[in-house]
């Protein structure tokens, strides 16, 4: 179903590309809420560029969107605009400029950033990190637990982009291959067993960046009551307040960076 164009200022279409789903919604970036119901399409498999760009076109057309677009991408997007690394999509993405590719087919102004960074932006402005979003706010590490593990690091409210701390080595393995939310389902782990894996990961990361606050995001954040009791770190720890909408809202906020 094609939705009517939502011509609301300051509305921005936020798109969150994930390893299993691609979600989008128009966002009021001044207040941090969705202007329409979130819409999700399963990520094409294999997740190659042509297939995913086709989904993005469908999402843009759904709202007949004419305004700005923010896109969170699961990989490293550096200042040249190109994809330099992605763990959970096709390696055909390497070298592609996501922003320019979407602009070439949609004729809209587009900004693309790392997906965990986008979720972090939303939580820092409107969610669990808002009290730290200032000079003297300390170090905040947003961790998204989903298909993989994404990280967004903030120092005194400033984003240190593309940290990719989900790929540190734990017990000889890439950390996200042990502690991502997808591993709990894939291996049939209890919340306790999986929570202990997450805890081991958090303790390792804490030694590296000494955060004042961990924010745990991703869809699993709505189940924090089931595994937070197994987390034992020095830093404060909080579930993402915006839950699974953080990536969409933060992607939209990225247009103001």
Protein architecture, described:
The chain is of the alpha/beta class and 257 residues long. It has 8 helices and 15 strands. Helix 1 crosses helix 2 (98-106) and helix 3 packs across helix 8. The longest helix has 19 residues, at 191-209. It starts with 10 loop residues before the first strand and ends with a helix.
Secondary structure layout plus pairing:
Blueprint (H helix, E strand, L loop, with lengths): L10 E7 L3 E8 L4 E2 L4 E4 L6 H14 L6 E5 L2 E2 L5 E3 L12 H9 L3 E5 H12 L12 E7 L3 E7 L2 E3 L8 E2 L2 E2 L1 H4 L1 H7 L3 H19 L3 E5 L6 H4 L8 E4 L6 H8 L4
Parallel strand pairs: 1-5, 5-8, 9-14, 14-15
Antiparallel strand pairs: 1-2, 2-3, 2-4, 6-7, 9-10, 10-11, 12-13
Helix pairs in contact: 1-2, 3-8
List descriptors.
257 residues, alpha/beta, five-stranded mixed beta sheet, 26% strand, globular
Rg estimate, integer Å = 17 Å
Poorly predicted ranges: none
Number of strands: 15
What proportion strand?
25-35%
Described by strand count, sense and barrel closure, the largest sheet is: 6 strands, mixed
- Average pLDDT metric: 94
Assembly state (oligomeric)? single chain
Shape: globular
What distance separates the N and C termini?
Answer: 32 Å
Tell me the series of helices and strands, N- to C-terminal: EEEEHEEEHEHEEEEEHHHEHEH
SS summary, helix count: 8
- Which bin fits the share of residues in helices? 25-40%
Which structural class do you get from the secondary structure elements?
A: alpha/beta
């Amino acid at each position: 179903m094609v939705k009517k164009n939502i011509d609301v200022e300051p509305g921005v279409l936020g798109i969150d590309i994930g390893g299993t789903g691609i979600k989008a919604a128009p966002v009021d970036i001044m207040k941090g809420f969705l202007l329409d119901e979130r819409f999700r399409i399963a990520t094409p498999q294999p997740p190659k560029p042509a297939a995913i760009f086709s989904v993005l076109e469908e999402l843009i057309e759904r709202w007949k969107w004419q305004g700005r677009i923010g896109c969170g991408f699961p990989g490293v997007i550096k200042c040249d605009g190109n994809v330099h690394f992605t763990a959970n999509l096709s390696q055909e993405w390497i070298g592609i400029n996501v922003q320019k590719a979407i602009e070439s087919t949609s004729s809209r102004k587009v900004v693309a950033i790392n997906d965990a960074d986008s979720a972090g932006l939303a939580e820092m402005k409107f969610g669990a990190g808002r009290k730290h979003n200032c000079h003297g706010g300390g170090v905040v590490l947003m961790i998204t637990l989903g298909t993989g593990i994404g990280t967004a690091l903030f120092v005194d409210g400033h984003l240190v982009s593309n940290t990719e701390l989900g790929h540190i080595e734990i017990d000889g393995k890439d950390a996200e291959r042990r502690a991502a939310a997808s591993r709990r389902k894939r291996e049939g782990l209890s919340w306790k067993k999986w929570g202990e894996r997450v805890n081991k990961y958090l303790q390792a990361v804490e030694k590296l960046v000494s955060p004042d606050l961990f924010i745990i995001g991703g869809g699993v954040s709505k189940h924090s009551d089931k595994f937070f009791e197994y987390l034992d770190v020095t830093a404060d720890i909080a579930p993402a307040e915006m839950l699974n909408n953080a990536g969409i809202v933060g992607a939209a906020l990225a247009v103001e960076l």
